[in-house]
């Protein structure tokens, strides 16, 4: 309880993608567009990865720093798709998250963009989750 994503992310090794997250003048976070393709979307075609890098939306720093006091996983069944080639959130950290949540896990050999690259596997996990009461 009371943990932030920034705190939890330290449960795995430092990553290329996390090191490339920087604030702009307003404090919003971006991943360095030069690092984005290899760190976030290494398994997407280069032109798509570059387009995503150049069109990424900002993320407010509080999304990483704000502690969470209520977590649905404490009361509900959980599922987690671990991206084993993720260079933003280390797979070791993802496994830690999943273990803490007592989640049913599925591993895909994908980057941080695995939700797109492995859409069928991710959709199957979502469908499975909808069947749990």
Explain this structure.
The chain starts with a helix and ends with a helix. Helix content is 40%, strand content 14%. The protein has 133 residues and is of the alpha+beta class. The longest helix has 12 residues, at 119-130. The chain has 8 helices and 5 strands; from the N terminus they run ααββααβαβαβαα. It has one domain (5-130): 3-Layer(aba) Sandwich (Rossmann fold), CATH 3.40.50. β4, α6 (91-101) and β5 (104-108) form a beta-alpha-beta unit.
From the helix content, strand content and strand pairing, which structural class follows?
alpha+beta
Please give the number of β-strands: 5
Envelope shape: globular
- Strand arrangement, major sheet: 1-2-3
CATH superfamily: Alpha/Beta hydrolase fold, catalytic domain
First and last CA, distance: 24 Å
Strand content: 5-15%
Helical coverage, percent range: 25-40%
Supply the CATH architecture: 3-Layer(aba) Sandwich
* Rg over alpha carbons: 15 Å
- What is the count of distinct domains? 1
CATH class group: Alpha Beta
Q: Uncertain segments of ≥5 residues (pLDDT<50)?
A: none
Mind summarizing the main beta sheet? Answer: 3 strands, antiparallel
DSSP helix count? Answer: 8
Oligomer: single chain
Mean pLDDT rating: 92
